[in-house]
Every structure is written in structure tokens, then in C-alpha cells.
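Lab notebook, bench 4. Continuing the backlog of folding jobs that were queued last week. Each job is logged with the same field layout so the records can be merged later without manual cleanup. Today's entry covers Flagellar hook-associated protein FlgL, a 405-residue chain. Filled in by technician R.K.

JOB TYPE: sequence-to-structure
TARGET: Flagellar hook-associated protein FlgL
LENGTH: 405
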Amino acid sequence: MIRLSTSWMYQQSLTTMLDQQGSLAATQNQVSSGQRINVASDDPAGATQAVSLNHILASTAQYSANIDGANARLSTESNTLSSFNSLLDQARSMALQGINGTLSTADRQNMATQLTQIRAQLVQLANTTDASGNALFAGTSTTSTPFVLNSDGSVSYTGNRDNQMTAIGSGLRIPNSDEGAGLFMNIPAGNGSFVAAATAGNTGSLLVGATSVTDSSAWKAATAAGPVNYQISFDAAGNWTATDANHGNAVVGTGSYQDGGSISFNGMTVALSGTPAAGDTMSVKSGQTQDVFGTLTNMINALNDGSQNNTQLGNTMSRQIESIDRAQDQVSSTQTDVGGRLNRLTQQKSTYSDLTLTYQTTLSGVQDTDMASAISKLMLQSTALQASQQTFAKVQGMSLFNYLK
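JOB STATUS: finished
OUTPUT FIELD FOLLOWS
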């Protein structure tokens, strides 16, 4: 027969009540915190899953923040390029006016002043910064003024050729701006393939007009060995001879020109107007580049040069119009690319929004408290504890001496 000592009964009752109090406290903590898992021991497997989900949510939040930053920079760039293009439109209109042979000296000087202001505005736009003060077009350089206007009217680029990148996903990066050298400085000159220009010292009225590559195969063959450097000379009858300065002035084309006609050889065509004097020449060169600021500087210098006659000014302005067109092509192409990147960011942000909702729902299912179940459990545990306490109170009051009384 087993004897149950009073001390043992006390100890068992106390242990039971302490266990019930611990369970009750845990349930109360779940109800008050709203989370079923407060420490890993509550549910080791669930806690591991919660840690993993929280890590994914943190990464998604960081990528979303990166997208917001890239979106702000690219939106600023898009607006800046729109303003840049508008200024180039103004400069182009002035270049067309500069071809007009009726401009007075005062008109030329006034146009030069306006173009000087436009050039300064273009430099200012090229030095645009984001909300954090970082230059948009400096590449990865930390300089805040990548474009410097020099005293002679030239512009220097002090940034680098690397685009800044933003991580918007695991192994997924996107440029958040465009470096300025490729955008504003190294622009193909002329029509993009070659530049045809009348020599400044010509005495006739020859005006070089539109130029184009009309036979790509012939042009490709002509430039296979490298950029071309042709010299075209005219005699008094309008006959022309083209020689190759890169190959001992070998003759590469001949023909006869009449006012309003064109000359063609080696896959290219140059429209002309006016009448050349005997000995007048023009050049055709490929592989050249011209920065957009230099284009305006050439226009300003030509307008301020009182020694240039109308034909010479017209030739200068015609070539600068070509350069402006190429610059606008470059800006427009970049704007299109920026628009594509903005769309991609929007799509990625939308994807993260959907994923975040999914992950949060899953995380809630893993760690959040089922309030209805927890409250019901809390009430049962509270009732059980009260019953234990009342039972203990009665048992500890039982004694033979109390009975004898």
C-alpha cells in the first residue's frame, strides 16, 4: 500500500498550478501580441518558415525602394531631355534663319546672343542633379558638374563612360541614368555617315545641301579600309573631280554639275545649289563626331564673324543643322529607352506589390494568432486554473484534527 504524504500532495498541486499558469500566460501573450509564435520554441518549424518569409519580405521592400529611387532619377532625366530637345528646336530654327541671305549685321549679332544663352541653358540641363544632388549625366563619377563651359565656348566633359545601375531584383539591374559623353559629346557628325562641307575660302556661290548614302553596298566598300577623306574640286564649267586624300589623291569620281543638281560617287549623294567658281572645293569625310555644344559654338562664331558672306554663312548653318538633327536623334532615342526602362520599373514594382501581399498572407497564416480559438482556449485554461486553486485550497484544509473538532 502506497502512502501519500502531505508534502507530496502539496508539491503535485503546486506543480500542476504552475504548469497551468505557464500555459495561461503563453495563451494570454498570443492574444495580446496577436502572434502565435513569439519565441522559436512555440513552433520551431513555423518559426523557421517565418524567418524565411520575413527575409523575403525585407528583400522585396528593399528592391521596391530601389525601384522608387530609379524611377525618380529616370523621370527627372526624361523631363530634362524633353527640355533639352526643345532648346535644340529653337537653335535649329535660328540656323534656318541664318541661311537667309537678307540678315543684317545686327540680326546676326542678336541671333548669336540668343544662341549663347541657349548654349548656357543646355550646359545647365546637362548638369541636372537628382534629389540627392547626384549628377544625372556624369556616369558613376561623383562630380556634380560633369559639363564645364570653357572661356573659348567649348565644353569639357569630366564624368566617365559608365552608367549608374540599380538592383531591382536578384541578378537584375537596370541603368538609372545615361552617361553624358555618349549622349551629348560623341555624336556622329553630318548625316550620321559622312560630312560634306564647302571650303571656307571658296569664291563662288556653291551651297552644300542634303547629303545621304544612296547605295549602302558601294558605301560599305568605300569605307571598308576606314573613314574616307575626299576632296572635290570644280572647274569654271562645273565639272568636278573627287580625289582620295587617304590614298595619294587618287581619283575616285568625276562628273558635271549644274546649279540645283547633285553629285554622286561611291554610294553617296550630295545635293548642291549655286554656282562654284573655278578652283572652288568641298570635302567629304566620314567617322567624325561633334558634341552638341560645339554645334552651337560653331553657329555663334559664324554669326559673329563679319567676314563671312551669305554663302559661307549658309554653308556653316547647313552643316550645323545636320549636327542638331543628329543630336536630336540621339536625345529622342535615349528618351525612348528611358521610357522603356520606366515601364519595366512599373511592371517590376507591380509584381513586388503582388508578391508582398502573397508573402504577408502566408506569414500571417504561419505566425498570427487565431483569435477565436485562442480566446476560447484562454477561457478554458483560466477556468481549469481556478478549479485547481480551489481544489488545492480544500485539500490543504483537510486534517484529522479539524474533523475531531
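OBSERVATION: The mean pLDDT is 85.
SIGNED: R.K.
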